[in-house]
Specification:
2 domains; 0% strand; rod-shaped
Length: 252
């Protein structure tokens, strides 16, 4: 009973609706391909221009120019690298930059999942339409409405059109998906390289001078104690001379 009802539904619908669905999916796919192509073209042009301006500044260690370029045209990972300077340590800033890169990946991969899914499943949708068409062809033959093997082959060839349409929809979707994935990887590679360059130039002078400042502060703090000990006679003459030298340095 259930089989007969399913047969009636199949014979009534045929494979035409499957091809209509595939054509609609093809329109959506082409729209996404066009939108993503324009998006990556604009993003690549802007990133190349930023790279041309920012890389010389990174190589020269010009911190002010680096900040100006990033604040004007930088992507979120680069802005995160600039924002972390002077506020957080290097390790924390790198984690924030990595998080910004992953968020940027989600933006770049927008709608690409649809293309990948369509490329994998469109042939199966077309094959489903072909199966429906073959069922209808043999059903018509059993009713005597078709004459001979020639008519059966004609019905099967017509049903195979659905498979061809499925492949027609899937192939551009798969090609576009692979192309855009390469664009995502390329864009993120350039962004990460620039972000590492920005981090490498984050306040290098302050970091290099910090140990020197600590040594001077330690020497200045120890000088009065050494001098006092020498005054009381607790230190030998060599220590006294060291204290005098330290006091002389402080006076200078």
């Amino acid at each position: 009973m259930l089989t007969e009802k399913l047969m009636q539904i199949t014979l009534a619908s045929g494979s035409e609706w499957v091809m209509v669905v595939l054509l609609l999916l093809s329109v959506v796919s082409l729209s996404i391909i066009g939108e993503r192509f324009y998006f990556f073209y604009k993003r690549r042009s802007r990133l190349d221009a930023l790279d041309a301006r920012l890389r010389p500044a990174i190589n020269a260690g010009d911190v002010d120019k680096i900040k100006a370029c990033v604040e004007r045209d930088g992507d979120p990972p680069l802005r995160a690298a600039i924002a972390g300077q002077g506020v957080r340590d290097r390790e924390s800033t790198e984690k924030i930059v990595a998080s910004a890169v992953e968020r940027e990946r989600l933006v770049l991969q927008k709608r690409l999942g649809f293309l990948g899914t369509l490329g994998n499943n469109a042939p199966f949708i077309g094959l489903f339409g072909t199966v429906l068409g073959i069922i209808r062809a043999f059903a018509d033959l059993s009713k005597g409405s078709m004459q001979g093997h020639t008519a059966v082959m004609a019905g099967i060839s017509e049903a195979l059109v659905a498979t061809a349409v499925g492949l027609f929809v899937a192939i551009p979707a798969v090609m576009a998906f692979n192309y855009f994935q390469r664009q995502v990887d390329h864009t993120l590679s350039i962004t990460e390289a620039l972000a590492q360059g920005v981090l490498a130039n984050s306040a290098p002078e302050s970091r290099s001078r910090e140990p020197e400042g600590r040594e001077r502060a330690s020497a200045s703090g120890n000088a009065p104690r050494i001098a006092g000990a020498a005054y009381r006679g607790d230190l030998p003459a060599s220590k006294t001379s060291d204290a005098d030298a330290a006091n002389a340095d402080d006076e200078e």
